[in-house]
Each structure stands twice: as structure tokens, then as C-alpha cells.
Amino acid sequence: VQLVESGGGLVEPGGSLRLSCAASGFTFSSYNMKWYRQVPGKERELVAVITYLGGITNYADSVKGRFTISRDNPKNTVYLQMNSLKPEDTAVYYCNAISQNGYYSHWGQGTQVTVSS
Predict the structure, then answer these.
(1) Which residues are paired to 107 by β-bridges?
(2) How far is CA 92 from CA 6, 29, 39, 104, in A?
(3) Are strands 67-72 and 17-24 parallel, antiparallel or unpaired?
(4) Which one, of 101, 94, 113, lies nearest residue 3 by Cα?
């Protein structure tokens, strides 16, 4: 099982980034997918969720209207489009795959996003 995030980097406030998370080793289309973020010294925060067929999405209040989660099941990939980025969005972003019954959970290694001028 592997989840590999990419697309992080340094961006100025107001800019955009698109994170990708490529999955392998499990039936991606059967798993709900989540993006979390974590700042050193703080708990991991749930940012966005998308159900296994992509029909339902949900977002943290802090990112609503700015971030969009999507998935491409044939490509085994989930995305996080981040627009109007703010310095407080700076964090390590992780993708998480969780089975529909909640029994199985897989994590990526994380990708750093830094929003700074």
C-alpha cells in the first residue's frame, strides 16, 4: 500500500497550488479520501473529504470556498486544489485513505506547503 503526495512548495499569499496523491496497492475506488494538514506543535487538522465515488465532499470552515477536493478513480489519484492561499495555510499536507467501514486507514508521507511573501 502506498500513498504519494506531490505538488507542495512555496507560494505567495493569494497564490494557488494543486496537491496530488497517487495511490497504489489497494482498491482506491472503494475508499473515501481525506486531506489533513499539520503544523508543528499542533494536532493534525482535517481539511477536506471526498467519498469513494466522489459524490460527496466536505471541507473545514477555514478552507471553504478556497479549496476543492476531487478524485480520478481510473488514475487512482486524489487532488486538492488550493486557491487564495493564506500564510495560515502553511503546513504539511497529508492524504489519507479510509475504507468505507473505517477499518482500514492508509497515510501518505506528506508534502510541505509554505505560504509566504
Answers:
(1) 96
(2) 11, 25, 7, 22
(3) unpaired
(4) 94
Q: Nearest-CA neighbor of 108 among 17, 47, 24, 14?
A: 24
pLDDT, tens digit, 9 for 90 and up, residues 25-65: 999 999 999 999 999 999 999 999 999 988 899 999 999 99
Written as one string, the DSSP assignment of 56-78 is -EEE-TTTTTTEEEEEEGGGTEE
pLDDT for 62-88, tens place per residue? Answer: 999 999 999 999 999 999 999 999 999
Amino acid identity of residue 48, one-letter, is: A
Pairing of the two strands 2-6 and 77-82: unpaired
